[in-house]
Specification:
single chain; 4-stranded antiparallel β-sheet; 31% helix
Length: 376
């Protein structure tokens, strides 16, 4: 592996990066506080970032606690991801208008904004790689996603700490990102002094650093940064042993464990809406009262919704048991068969935001143990 170009930035110099991105026409999106949680929202200055926080997470639990080390990017992930910007929850695809006995298809083409996403975690960068594979690299291109993705600039923050619900290390999607970014930061906090190791991932990222005249980083910084992310991965207590995932799911299709988890699952869809890779949608056709205007909207859907599998004659997956089994099976087995990688990046959001306290790593581990005698 070649050694990446590495630079050092102070906090004022990082603000210079923000200013350079503004001059290039980017709207900055970064971690902010919203409803007592970390969320992605518009920022303009370093002071807009929700700094000085640590996220305490667990099954059905999320609390932000203050930290005293001055870190700018101390908290890990909140309930939302970049999905809401690049694969938005509601998109109008078509609008038609009738007048004087004829109708006209109105032009819906609108250039999306240029957005620079600050503080993206490696698991979310890995999730974008999954979406790239599906929406831009497959047989059919999703024009909405492709247009937004092509105008995105990614500033990743390498994780030197893990939250309790993180399991990205076992999914090979963190705590360190090796690719998929324009710039990657490793925060180095020592008392009140904060500096950043910056790795370059694209020509546009290099141009931004050149504009702020970033200095070269000491060679030891990259080694120290790698060791810090390795330690964060080693500290993760949750794991998903994926070497036999498909075989376990096949062997456990009729296992009684699915009935047990169904008694706790509310089929609320929190897991799919907070998941950075889930992408299922539905189409809604609407018209006004006098029938002169008709619209087609694409909206997020969830495989936990009972009507998700409705076809003429009824619903295929009527029970919560069948819907949970489908979700876990697709995430850890069928997705890889389709797209070459698991549909899970180990961010832990589905664990944190499940009101039923269901832990995907625990459920898979129990299923694996139950069927271990029948897996080869």
């Amino acid at each position: 592996m070649s050694t990446p170009a590495c630079h050092r930035l102070t906090r004022p110099e990082l603000q210079g990066v923000f200013d350079a991105l503004h001059r290039r026409g980017f709207e900055l999106i970064g971690p902010i506080l919203r409803d007592e949680a970390l969320a992605f929202g518009p920022i303009h200055h370093l002071d807009d970032i929700a700094s000085g926080w640590r996220a305490e997470t667990g099954p059905g639990r999320y609390r932000l606690q203050p930290r005293d080390d001055g870190r700018l990017f101390g908290a890990i992930v909140g309930p939302d991801s970049l999905k809401k910007f690049l694969h938005p929850s509601r998109v109008r695809l078509l609008r038609a208008q009738r007048s004087n006995g004829t109708f006209q298809i109105l032009n819906e083409t609108k250039e999306p904004p240029k957005r620079a996403f600050i503080g993206v975690r490696p698991c979310d960068a890995a999730a974008l790689a999954r979406h790239d594979r599906i929406f831009t690299d497959d047989q059919y291109v999703d024009d909405v996603y492709a247009a937004r993705r092509s105008r995105a600039f990614l500033v990743v923050v390498q994780c030197t700490e893990s939250a309790d619900t993180c399991f990205c290390e076992s999914m090979n999607s963190g705590p360190r990102a090796e690719a998929g970014f324009d710039l990657a930061l490793t925060e180095r906090a020592a008392g009140e002094t904060t500096e950043f190791l910056v790795e370059v991932g694209s020509p546009e990222g290099a141009a931004v650093l050149e504009e702020v005249q970033a200095q070269a980083a000491p060679k030891s910084w990259l080694k120290e940064g790698r060791e810090a992310t390795q330690a964060a991965g080693a500290a993760q207590s949750r794991r998903l042993p994926l070497d036999q995932a498909t075989a376990v799911i096949d062997a456990g299709f009729d296992n009684a464990l699915w009935d047990e988890v169904a008694t706790r699952c509310l089929a609320c869809g929190n897991c799919t809406s907070s998941c950075p890779t889930c992408f299922c949608v539905n189409m809604e056709d609407r018209s006004n009262v006098d029938g002169t205007v008709a619209e087609r909207w694409r909206v997020w859907d969830s495989c936990f919704n009972q009507q998700f599998t409705y076809i003429h004659g009824g619903v295929i997956r009527f029970s919560v048991k069948a819907r949970y089994r489908q979700w876990l099976s697709h995430k850890l087995g069928r997705w890889k068969e389709q797209f070459g990688a698991e549909g899970c990046v180990g961010c832990g959001r589905c664990i944190t935001w499940c009101p039923g306290h269901i832990d995907i790593t625990e459920e898979f581990s129990k299923l694996r143990t139950a069927v271990s005698g029948g897996v080869r």
